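Lab notebook, page 48
Experiment: co-folding of the full assembly
Goal: obtain a model of how the components sit together before planning crosslinking
Operator: M.T.
Materials (sequences as entered):
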Amino acid sequence: GNSVTQMEGPVTLSEEAFLTINCTYTATGYPSLFWYVQYPGEGLQLLLKATKADDKGSNKGFEATYRKETTSFHLEKGSVQVSDSAVYFCALGSQQGGSYIPTFGRGTSLIVHP
Amino acid sequence: DTAVSQTPKYLVTQMGNDKSIKCEQNLGHDTMYWYKQDSKKFLKIMFSYNNKELIINETVPNRFSPKSPDKAHLNLHINSLELGDSAVYFCASSPLLAGVVMNEQFFGPGTRLTVL
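Observation: model returned without errors.
Model output:
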């Protein structure tokens, strides 16, 4: 079956530091890949996505590139802000036997200090 | 103009009770989901449902049942609540693209269920 593995958190950074959150996946076929963000007390919201190999998703200064050869979709940001403190989820979506199966990683908590 | 809404936001109840959580989406999506998020933020899919098919995660106890009165609503009914059911429950929806569900999901704000 499909699976998503994320680095364990929490990740603690100072403001303006560089961020990387690693994500690797196992899937059959050609999945779409996503990063979602969950701010405290809220639901998940889509941060960025990529639908095929070598695609780069980007939004709000965050980027991730779909690497089929390494089955990875690492999230990066060049300079984090306190307001980026949240839980980040890597996810994939694929068709299996005519049904859509979303699979989420366990989430990585990011804490940014001023 | 909320896209995916859930009610109630908080639900506190006694063990053994039966309760329901309601979910509505006004996005015109065809597929809806229910997720359970535990205290460590682990997100577990419980059900996915469109107007043709219900897919149940086989690890979900049969005390949980989704009910869909129409395409825009997917309610979650829970019988005989247990302490371990305490969690945050999220509803989500996805559009179909050329008959294939491959796009992102839109999540509701969550319902925090506490079983005493």
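Interpretation: The longest strand of chain A covers residues 86-96.
Next step: discuss with group before ordering constructs.
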